[in-house]
Amino acid sequence: MKLVRFGVPGSEKPGLIDADGKIRDLSAHVADWKGDALSPQSLARIAALAPASLPEVTGNPRLGSCVAQPGNFIAVGLNYADHAAESNMPIPQEPVLFNKAPSCVVGPNDDVVIPRGSEKTDWEVELAIVIGSRASYVEEKDALSYVAGYAVCNDVSERAYQIERSGQWMKGKGCPTFGPLGPWLVTPDEVGDVQNLSMWLDVDGERVQTGSTKTMIFGVAHIVHYISQFLILEPGDVITTGTPPGVGMGMKPPRYLKPGNVMTLGIEKLGDQRQTTVAWSA
């Protein structure tokens, strides 16, 4: 299934995409795509519905983030060897973990706000994992059974805040609008081999990132297993899994986003995003 949330910010409704690409309204069957609504039992119940029996959503509604505000929004850093090289950082021996603020989550086509005073706002196309079952001390061989689905994430980053301001990376990762998610939450049965998905990102029509999940250092199963050794993952939690090379920080000279830039990005089978950058205002 391809699950969506549609409507104005703060009042999104849950839906799914039918075989013809139309949005079908699921609000009579589920309150929102969050928490236990993403459990295997809940998703099986939704999968048993005939899409044609659901109300069709007309027009061109805004798409919200494919998951309502997650309890945890965890990120994996330097998870592609060539991105670690362009960042002048060593290949990690274990996954590098940091937090993005759940409040930074926005829809896939919403504006991205460049923070007040920022001069180094950057882009990162990433595969996001959405958890469907409570996970604690999960074995790697079982890890994928805890996944509700996958989505596109733009891990927007402010490099000066992240790297030059000392302390943890989260300062440059959780600014408002720095977590576009969607357009869809795609269930694993439609994704197939999650470790063989092409991914890309353009800035103003220029291709800057081209990659594949097959070059991840730590794969999805290992990431879910690894994180579950340190904390409990709950249904609706999001893990974004790192980016391939081509970020602005790695260019020579470095290149960063300014108001009016347009980012378009996507991952095979998971859909596309489009964001315009805007200046911060009070």
Automatic annotation (TrEMBL):
Name of a matching Pfam family: FAA_hydrolase
Keywords per UniProt: Hydrolase, Metal-binding
Keyword DNA-binding among record annotations: no
Cross-referenced SUPFAM superfamilies: FAH
Keyword Hydrolase: yes
Alphabetical list of InterPro entries matching this protein: FAH, Fumarylacetoacetase-like_C, Fumarylacetoacetase_C_sf
Ranges for domain Fumarylacetoacetase-like C-terminal: 73-276
Gene Ontology MF annotations: hydrolase activity
Highest classification ranks of the organism: Bacteria, Pseudomonadati, Pseudomonadota, Alphaproteobacteria, Hyphomicrobiales
Name assigned to this protein: Fumarylacetoacetate hydrolase family protein
Stated family: Belongs to the FAH family.
PANTHER family named in the record: FUMARYLACETOACETATE HYDROLASE DOMAIN-CONTAINING PROTEIN 2A, FUMARYLACETOACETATE HYDROLASE DOMAIN-CONTAINING PROTEIN 2A-RELATED
